[in-house]
Amino acid sequence: MKHIRKGLALTVISIAAAGIWQASPAAAYVPGNCEVNEFCGFKDNLYKGGFLIESAAPAGSNHVEIADNLLSSGNNRSGTNTWLAINDHSWPQDDETSWRFFPNTAVPAMTGANDEVDWFDVR
Length: 123
What we know:
This protein is 17% helix and 31% strand. It is built from one helix and eight strands. The strands form two sheets. Strands 2-1-4-7 form a four-stranded antiparallel β-sheet, with no helix packed on it. A four-stranded antiparallel β-sheet has the order 3-8-5-6, with no helix packed on it.
């Protein structure tokens, strides 16, 4: 009986050690594989369709260009900057902010504002 308890204890320790090994954190999923300190914009919802923009433009940047009227999703990993998605209306109408990508947010679908962005201002 004493020998069985030792074997049982070793089995429990082995299982516990295996559980610790399996519980180690996996690489975090990053929507669209956007790098740290960058903003990434994508042609399609769910970060698909290819990059339209991958930029580390600093706060205060204006008119950060993007292909007109194609953006559908984005990931702002810039840390502290808000990226303002601007819709360039024809005169006499003023330009408008159609979406705000706040720091460290990912937007899988820009419902109501997709395919309207012409450039970004970074704040």
